[in-house]
Amino acid sequence: MTDTPDPIRPEARAPRGFADRRGPEVAQERRIVRQVSEVYERWGFEALETGAFEYADALGKFLPDADRPNEGVFALQDDDEQWMALRYDHTAPLARFAAQSWETLPKPYRRYAFGPVWRNEKPGPGRFREFVQCDADTVGSDRPEADAEIIAMACEGLQAAGLAEGQAVVRVSNRKLFDGLFEAGGITDPIQRLTALRAIDKFDRLGWEGVAQLLGEGRLDDSGDYTKGANLPLGVASTIEAFLGSASEGTRAETLDAIARSGGLGAAGEAALEELAGIDRALTAMRVDQVTVRFDPTIVRGLEYYTGAVFEAELLLDTTDDKGRPVRFGSIGGGGRYDDLVARFTGQSTPATGFSFGVSRLASALRAAGRAGEVARGPVVVIVFSQDDMQSYLDAVSELRAAGIAAELYLGRAGMKAQMKYADRRNAPAAVMLGGDEIAAGQVTIKDLDAGRAAAAGLADNEAWKAARPGQQTVARADLVSTIRAIIEASSTI
């Protein structure tokens, strides 16, 4: 007799950077999207949904340069041999859509979008390969007021998402400042410029020492990964160091004065200062204070397509990991002006500006700050005693649902004690019990699980409250819905 080999079973595991989310986390992200969307719509932005895939050549900085264009994105080849990639953000799809639909769109075109995006990058704390972003953009306006409006709306949106005043700051700069510095230093190679900008974008995390390495030959990080540097001349790197040191903790106007005094900005830099001054005037007119939005010349943003004003939202909340150790989330969103992105399709310059924040990242940060939000309310659970009475159970759960009350019939095979434990774990407001005696008498027994939780938490020490709210009661079967509704309404007041 031949022994049958054990079947090969795959290890149950999620790919790195792809998170499973249960009810409370899903509810929190949906709440953030809903509340931020309400802000965007109040500011006059319309919703737009685009597909998960875009052709790889539409993704801007991720043009295919190898047999498989998977640098930074997840790509596949369609049956017509064209490469497609899961969208990296919502901005590139917007540019493609605007170019495709420009003749039929109101101009300027104001839209917001939310949904998952995918990045083939190294995951880390609060940084995922699949996550939800929420964007708002204006296409077709070159006014500094358009940038200021996006910034002000982003501040209101982050507050709607759950951040109180002082828990985030939006830092603003302009990419043209560095264009002027590069021109003055004779740096004309676009790849060298982009490498330098990506290095400067890490200033808040690496400090000058780390940035200096990336502006030079390169840097080896703690994990052993080596990043090739920009190889800038020492004189240019020194000028950048002095420029970054011009950041002011004063007002926006004072920061602009400090930048202007640093010198060597050239025509592009002078134009940047004028644009930033226009943004400041509009922000001041909209009563956006100097603490919530600051000017900071160290902000450059890493993406290639930014052409002017850039902004980055930084989380100021104290956050910890699951072991209580401090963890820094830093940037939770950003954006800027990208006047050349639509032109990649049309050949005609089309000004655009926008802001995006990571919903999943912000939700993760709020949880790390002990701000998980409201506990998701579970359904009323109808307990099952006997298969013979299944019709009565199904009638009860159907009646509750028809009345707009979330309800479920327990469909396992455990006894009553386990079913009650199940209802508690589901965070059910109540459990409905229809035993043989209740059914015969035309009655129903209802256990108020919320009352039990409140008492256990010390919230129900008021004798009058406890007397008015029994933990368990038997009522007429016809009063099932009204009794459950009273329990749920009372729960919202404790």
From TrEMBL:
Coiled-coil positions: none
One annotated GO molecular function: histidine-tRNA ligase activity
Cellular compartment(s): Cytoplasm
Catalytic activity: tRNA(His) + L-histidine + ATP = L-histidyl-tRNA(His) + AMP + diphosphate + H(+)
Entries under Pfam families matching the protein: HGTP_anticodon, tRNA-synt_His
SUPFAM superfamilies for the chain: Class II aaRS ABD-related (SSF52954), Class II aaRS and biotin synthetases (SSF55681)
Protein name: Histidine--tRNA ligase
Lineage: Bacteria, Pseudomonadati, Pseudomonadota, Alphaproteobacteria, Caulobacterales
